[in-house]
Amino acid sequence: MKILVVGGSGLLGYHVLEQLRLRGHEATTVARTPREGVDRVVDVTVASEDDLRELLAGHDGVVFAGGSDDRKVDKGPVAPRLHEGNVAPVVALLKAAREVGCTRAAVLASYYTYFDRVHPEWGLAAQHPYVRSRIEQARVARETAGPDLPVAVIEVPYVFGVAPGRVPQWSVPVVKWVRSSAPLFAPRGGSAATSARGVGIATVDALEDASGADIPVVEENLRWADMLTRMSGAAGKPRAVRTLPAGVLKAMFRLGGRVTGLTGKQPGLTIEHLDGLFLRELYVEPPVHRSVDEAIRETTKA
């Protein structure tokens, strides 16, 4: 296969490229800024239809590994910015991919769409603009691609691991915390977790299979306390993790929501409703259980 990887200079895009090349496939790396290893410098959010067709010509498939994540915060409504980052470029890419005859595609997305699908009673889409943008992304991707261009949606949870010059952005403040001597607190609940390498493997598997499935990627399910325990141990600062009462967590998020509201900023995940994520077990049964300890060590020491 010859695959175009948009966002190939990022953490997950790097590992998709690595897996493609390990399996003998060709890959073209696209990013919006020049960087070592980037083959084409293109901002797909503003590229013309002709430019996208020229970019995709000769490729068997495309991976979208870019977009806006849930930490995007700025003044004014966040929904238009999430649409611009997550939905519009996918529509443009897949339209061009269909027109030049690509036969497979993958979109790297979020595991929140998995939980909205299996637990609609949680109301995640109603509560969080970011979740809505990812649901819309998957829907319009398949509508745009049509039946002859299957689109796999790779539903990514908390990721550990590194790439050259890249770490998971969510991990940056947490790693600073566990490296310090400050007390560690965690609420009940936990999350599915994977390595960046695991995302690369799942994505290339989907491309090889020309899968059009929703694919949640998980290697382990971790309680928040277990996650912090492993990270602090990897940082050389092992210590006990105390339980954060649910009432305290809810009060913190309510206060955080009010403060954010006063600034006129809106995050992708609504702060007032974050307790509904951190107090639940956001677990996915892994098809094959693999420890993420090595990826945790890489992340903590990067």
TrEMBL record:
Domain NAD(P)-binding: 7-143
Species of the source: Amycolatopsis rhabdoformis
InterPro entries listed in its UniProt record: NAD(P)-bd_dom, NAD(P)-bd_dom_sf, NAD(P)-dependent_oxidoreduct
Stored SUPFAM superfamilies: NAD(P)-binding Rossmann-fold domains
Name of the protein: NAD(P)H-binding protein
